From TrEMBL, chain A:
It is found in: Cell membrane. This is Arginine ABC transporter ATP-binding protein. The keyword Membrane applies. GO terms for molecular function: ATP binding. Belongs to the ABC transporter superfamily. It is a peripheral membrane protein. Residues 10-244 form the ABC transporter domain. Keywords: Amino-acid transport, ATP-binding, Cell membrane, Membrane, Nucleotide-binding, Transport.
TrEMBL record, chain B:
NCBIfam families: HEQRo_perm_3TM. Belongs to the binding-protein-dependent transport system permease family. HisMQ subfamily. The keyword ATP-binding does not apply. Its main location: membrane. Keywords: Amino-acid transport, Cell membrane, Membrane, Transmembrane, Transmembrane helix, Transport. It holds the Pfam family BPD_transp_1. SUPFAM superfamilies: MetI-like (SSF161098). Residues 15-204 form the ABC transmembrane type-1 domain. It is a multi-pass membrane protein. The lineage of its organism: Bacteria, Bacillati, Actinomycetota, Actinomycetes, Pseudonocardiales. This is Amino acid ABC transporter permease.
Length: 250, 215
């Protein structure tokens, strides 16, 4: 295949992480090729959010290697900032800048990090807000928007940096049920457009529909790594069977 | 009343000196204090150590001793000669900056950690994050305690009286030399300070109101 020479977009190799005595990531191995959508499932406390946050070094790791687009994560500093600019991240709690309007939220990083002129940054920001369906909210402050609208704004803010890869850390877990779909629709659209995505979520529907691959984590380990069809119809491990049993019965 | 009207020129001139001492030291200590706060929340341990040491030393030293150092001890070092007035500004600035630093730092701590994480995830550097995201939000909660710090600075300028730097605190000396009624003189000085502090309280209200709507 052609991908043999190209490095994977994300490579996680032999990663261990401790929170004090708690071993939260145990020798984790994971490769995400360019253009693939990987959904990470698992019970709470399984380390999936931590894994997601280690990839742009919001959580430093204790041992192992993490590479983004063939480049190992540098230590804290200007170089790490440059790498983070290429890795979009969407948080469970949105984390929009509370003192800035929606359009200013989207414009800030392109202007400060990429040195994009204001007019151009605004134009791109408005196009992105249009794409996620909240262009009419551009001049409001985050607190004036619904949770679903805030999360879509946060996705637009991440996309404004033209990232090579997008990380989603439980993007719909803090949303009211009726707002989950609007966010998932935006994410499905992104997946269709060929964005490389690592999505930590509890949304099984999204995993079935949009994922190329499902990773199942439990107790800090990657237990299964398969296609959605395989995982949902014929999980191999008992832990995955147990997990799916709890979720799919109600 | 006659104490005031007979010495109006003296009162105005020395209160003018107080205002000048206050204004210069206020601006300088706000700048220095904010820089110190940036050091104290920096990811570099050495910077955090410098900031913490500064605050510990200056905040725990009586202001009078800081004055004594810059007016009497520092000249003996023969590094750079400074006028008593400049020495007073330096003493007030360095002392007040320690308090400003802690007020700003407490403001920074009120900003949810997610705001900093989102900034870092977008590729902003530490300075960009502080300047564009964290400090603007920290300012809101900082206004009332910062006003108190500035009021304390305004009143602390009178410490300069003991060091031959003329300002409102020296009015008593001048009056007693002339044989005027010192008690009434001091009452007028006190009223003068109340009048000077009132605009600061007003400024506090304006900022609190303005920054509370913008969210």
């Amino acid at each position: 295949m052609t991908a043999a020479s190209a490095p994977p977009m994300i490579r996680v190799a032999g990663v261990d992480k401790f929170f004090g005595p708690l071993h939260v990531l145990k020798n984790v191995q994971l490769e995400v090729p360019k253009g693939q959508v990987v959904v990470v499932l698992g019970p709470s406390g399984s380390g999936k959010s931590t894994l997601c946050r280690t990839i742009n070094r919001l959580e430093p790791i204790d041992s192992g290697v993490i590479e983004v687009d063939g480049q190992p994560l540098p230590a804290e500093g200007k170089e790490l900032a440059r790498l983070r600019a290429d890795v979009g991240m969407v948080f469970q709690s949105f984390n929009l800048f509370a003192h800035k309007t929606i359009v200013d939220n989207v414009m800030l990083a392109p202007q400060k990090v990429r040195k994009t002129p204001a007019a151009e940054a605004r134009k791109t920001a408005m196009e992105l807000l249009e794409r996620v369906g909240i262009a009419n909210q551009a001049d409001k402050f985050p607190a004036q928007l619904s949770g679903g609208q805030q999360q879509r704004a946060a996705i637009a803010r991440a996309l404004a940096m033209k990232p090579k890869v997008m990380l989603f850390d439980e993007p719909t877990s803090a949303l009211d049920p009726e707002m989950v779909q609007e966010v998932l629709d935006v994410m499905t659209g992104l997946a269709k457009d060929g964005m490389t995505m690592l999505v930590v979520t509890h949304e099984m529907g999204f995993a079935r529909k949009a994922a190329d691959r499902v990773i199942f984590m439990s107790d800090g380990e990657v237990v299964e790594d398969s296609t959605p069809e395989e995982f949902f119809s014929a999980p191999k491990s008992n832990r995955a069977k147990d997990f799916l049993g709890k979720i799919l019965t109600h | 009343m006659s104490v005031l009207t007979n010495n109006l020129e003296l009162f105005l001139r020395l209160f003018g000196q107080t205002l000048q001492l206050f204004a210069i030291s206020a601006v300088l200590s706000l700048v220095l204090g904010t820089l110190l706060a940036a050091l104290r929340v920096s990811p570099v341990p050495v910077f955090r150590g410098i900031g913490a040491t500064y605050v510990t030393v200056l905040r725990n030293t009586p202001l009078t001793l800081v004055f004594v150092f810059f007016l009497f001890a520092y000249p003996l070092l023969e590094i750079l000669r400074i006028e008593p007035y400049t020495a007073a500004v330096v003493a007030l600035t360095l002392y007040t900056a320690a308090f400003v630093c802690e007020v700003v730092r407490s403001g920074i701590n009120t900003v949810p950690v997610g705001q900093a994480e989102a900034s870092r995830a977008l590729g902003l550097t530490f300075t960009q994050m502080l300047g564009n995201v964290v400090l603007p939000q920290a300012l809101r909660s900082v206004v009332p305690p910062m006003t108190s710090t500035m009021i304390a600075l305004l009143k602390n300028t009178t410490v300069a009286s003991g060091f031959a730097v003329p300002q409102a605190g020296s009015i008593r000396d001048a009056l007693s030399e002339q044989g005027d009624n010192v008690l009434f003189g001091l009452i007028w000085v006190a009223i003068g300070f109340v009048v000077l502090v009132m605009p600061l309280t007003y400024v506090q209200q304006v900022f609190e109101k303005r920054w509370s709507v913008a969210r």
